[in-house]
Amino acid sequence: MQAPAITIEGLTKRFGAVTAVDDLSFTVAPGRVTGFLGPNGSGKTTTLRMLLGLVEPSAGRALIGDRPFRRIARPAQHVGAALEASSFHPGRTGLGHLKALAPQVGVPTSRCRDVLDFVGLTPAADRRVGGYSMGMRQRLGLATALLGDPQIILLDEPANGLDPQGIVWLRGLLRSLAHEGRTVLVSSHVLAEVRSTVDDVVVIGSGKLVRASTLTDFEALAERSVEVRTPARASFVALATERGWRLEDTHDGFRIHDADAATVGAAAFAAGLELHQLADVGADLESVFLRLTSSSDAPTSHLAPGGGPSAADPAPAVESREEGR
């Protein structure tokens, strides 16, 4: 098994009487996209800032590979980060911003146009950042993170300010980075934004770990159900009772909870019942997400099999965000 790309071990951060991150432990597998999920104020940004050496932990440690970020030579060539879309000099152009960073990162200025093109900002390269929309600033943040061609990429709420087309583009970008073998840790407070993109999930609430697993294992926590319409309502109710199905009357049909269409269809066929509709209903992951994070005072961490993240056993300057984020 490959060594983790990122290790968070017993990480804690207190701001006075407020504990923003509380004994947090997990690992991130290399070459995968991991969603770092939690409500606003759950400690995601504070965790990422500690990982980047921008905030000193009260306890614990955060490692890139086998060492803290501050001990990595030429760190921007190993780790790229986009934490704050508003931390650009408004008087500089997008291209000028990247050219100012290129010597620090250790790349030729020709790389600047390459990453602007990669994130779709070439038409706005010579415009001042002060005139950029929020979505354009997010793209410039991504370009900044990719400037050093790093293998590990940290993104904090990168979908903020993107329109629907931009979100689709972002998903494709993240998948393409993973296909290149890069490790991506992307935070979000909206599960739907990253569900179609991530391989693994780390969920936190109130600064504590509540779940670390593959997306597949996370999806298995959600109830699946089947929607049925049939003219033989009474007979179908009798079949459901016989089979022990949990049935909900939806007025024009039924919803069978904790079941799948193949099982229900086969039983109805064997009983000679006519069905006008038989459809699986997608897993309600948002309900799982809300349930886990709302009960985070009693966190349940999970060790994921294979390449997923696990609960571990006991860059450029960015503008500060609210404590505990």
From TrEMBL:
Alphabetically ordered keywords of this record: ATP-binding, Nucleotide-binding, Transport
PROSITE patterns with a match to the protein in the record: ABC_TRANSPORTER_2 (PS50893)
SMART domains: AAA (SM00382)
Domain ABC transporter as annotated: residue spans: 6-231
Species the sequence originates in: Gordonia jinghuaiqii
Region (Disordered): 296-325
Entries under InterPro entries matching the protein: AAA+_ATPase, ABC_transporter-like_ATP-bd, P-loop_NTPase
Name the UniProt record assigns to this protein: ATP-binding cassette domain-containing protein
Family to which the UniProt record says this protein belongs: Belongs to the ABC transporter superfamily.
Any GO molecular function: ATP hydrolysis activity
